[in-house]
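Here is one chain, start to finish.
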Amino acid sequence: MPQLQLPLFAPGLTPLSEDLAVQQENGRVVYFHGLLPIFQHDEKDLKSFRMYTSQLIANGTVRQGDIVRAFGVPLATVKRYMQVYRQGGTAGFFQPPRRRSANVLTPEVKQRAQELLDEGKSVPEVSREIGVAGNTLHKAIHAGRLHAVKKKLGSKTRAGPALRASVARATAARRWATAQPGP
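Its structure:
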C-alpha cells in the first residue's frame, strides 16, 4: 500500500507543487523534493533553469502555471522552452543560437566585398559600391565571414581634440573681430 507523504517544506521555500519547492539563496537556486535537494543551478544560469523547469513540466511533476506563478515568467516563454525541450531534449538548451545566413552575400558579392575591404576601403564605401547594406557587411565581419583591414593611423585620421580646439579658437577669434559693435 502506497505511503502518503505529507507536504513538508522548510521555512523560506517557495512551493512549486505538493512535493516540490524552490529556494534562492547566495546566488544559487535549489529545488527540493520535500526536505531533500534534488537540483541546483546559479541564479543567472538561464539555460539550466529553462532546461530543468521544462523537464519538470514534461514529466508531469509541475504544470506550466506553477512555473509562471513561482518565478514570474511569462506563460509564452514557458511554452517556447517546452517546445525547445520536445524538439531537442536537454541538449537543445545548450546549443549555440542558429544564425540566418545573409542571402545577399552570395560568394561573388562576398569576394568583391573582401577585395574592396583589402584595398583599405571603409565599410560604408564598400556598401555603396556593391549595393549591400552596411549593417549586413558589419554582421559578416563580426561573424568572421569577411575580414576588415585595420586602418593605419596617419595624416588622414580624424582631428584630435587639440586640433579641434585650436580650430574652434581661431573661428571664434575671427567672428569676434568681424562682429559689429552694438548700439
